[in-house]
Design goal:
7 helices, alpha/beta, five-stranded parallel β-sheet, 239 residues
Length: 239
């Protein structure tokens, strides 16, 4: 190999190594740690929680639900001057959340928006995971455009009695308990995909509710105390 050939070879190798190094750096920066996104509002005073029955503070008929985590957070943060608004109705999908969040964002500037949904999507065979992820991403984008820091709650770990089809209720669409099994697996898959696919959000890590449920889906009042603690640690105490 003559001198010219050696120069060409080393040049090609240099470009190749540089390309691999750049790709690794980009991948690491994109992947990072779970939910590493720059927080703009260090001292949040206005928080919006968006979700379904996991976050609802009222029944569909308007009755008050006092034991769910948003009310516990309200009580915990009221002395700090923090107000918490809730956009959450039992049975709703992320499509409903996406369509209704704008009315809240148009009326008020929030410091934090917590998005906690997708459970009803995964229980609906006609809703693809890609649709759910797209809805969540759009809500994150709308929240950030409003000036808020967007948080996505990954929810409880699907283990123990949570996701146990044997205690989960039958419905007009799921007439046998065993039919819950594929939907439970779909929920696990969504929980795994959210931090991989959603951009520009901070993630509240999945938490262990220690089987504090009676139907395999919804936390009991003591379970909601754990949820409140985990959400508080992730969106307030940490900053």
């Amino acid at each position: 190999m003559n001198k010219t050939q050696k120069i060409i070879l080393f040049s090609i190798l240099g470009v190749f190594v540089a390309g691999i190094t750049t790709a690794i750096i980009i991948r690491v920066r994109r992947k990072g740690k779970l939910g590493i996104t720059k927080i703009k509002n260090k001292n949040p005073k206005k928080i919006l929680i968006v979700g379904d029955s996991q976050s609802a503070i009222e029944t569909s008929s308007g009755g008050k639900i006092t034991y769910t985590y948003p009310n516990l957070l309200r009580e915990q943060l009221k002395d700090k001057g923090v107000t918490i608004d809730v956009l959450a109705v039992g049975g709703k999908t992320t499509d409903w959340m996406k369509k209704n969040i704008s009315s809240k964002l148009d009326k008020k500037k929030y410091d934090r928006v917590i998005i906690y949904g997708g459970g009803n999507d995964t229980s609906n065979a006609s809703i693809k995971l890609e649709t759910t992820l797209n809805n969540i991403q759009q809500m994150v984008d709308m929240s950030r455009e409003n000036g808020a820091d967007a948080f996505v709650n990954l929810g409880y770990k699907v283990q123990g009695d949570f996701g146990n089809y044997k205690i989960m209720p039958t419905t007009p669409y799921i007439d046998k308990k065993e039919k819950w099994i594929p939907y439970v697996e779909k929920r696990k898959q969504l929980q795994k995909l959210i931090p991989q696919k959603i951009k520009n959000a901070t993630f509240i890590p999945a938490y262990d509710l220690q089987s504090k449920t009676t139907d395999g889906i919804h936390p009991t009042s003591s379970g909601h105390k754990i949820v409140a603690e985990k959400v508080y640690d992730s969106i307030v105490k940490k900053y």
